[in-house]
Amino acid sequence: MSKFSILLIITFFSFLKVSYSASNDSTISLMQSIEIADKIIEGDIIKAERKFREKGTFVELEILTPKGGRMILELENKTGNMLSLESKEGPFEYEIYPGNNIQLLSKMKKSVEENTGDEVLKWKLSQKKEVWEYEFWTISKTGKANIRINADSGEIISKPIKKEPKKKKKSK
Fold first, then answer.
1. Is this prediction's pTM over 0.90?
2. Is the peptide bond before 91 cis (omega within 30 degrees of 0)?
3. In this predicted structure, what is the pLDDT of residue 158?
């Protein structure tokens, strides 16, 4: 058994102690959230915790992919529905299966890199006004760019406008 597996087991048991002792059917358990994460992305859960924000409670899971990528998955506390999934750290050599007719990450990432000629630095999948969107950040000659794609249709919602170089005025 690797050190990582032992750490994961210890972490898991510490979560069991911290989890709601008077748990009821209205919230998902941390174990259920780990099972949901396993269906979305292949990798090791290295952290799982309940968090609170103004809109309510959610479960945040930090996942390490087999090739070393890291991502954060947020699940709604009561239903276990995905709120967002993001990765700020590559390599992005993996696939995600979020369901809901959402396009595959690899296909959307490839589209962004082909359309911009730039490499993806980070990405996020989240729901905006009932529509799931991928957001990709790249770096280009003009600086950091953000490209938004409809995750259902694969259509580009917004992309950076390439600035044309200024033409020099001819001097007389």
1. no
2. yes
3. 82
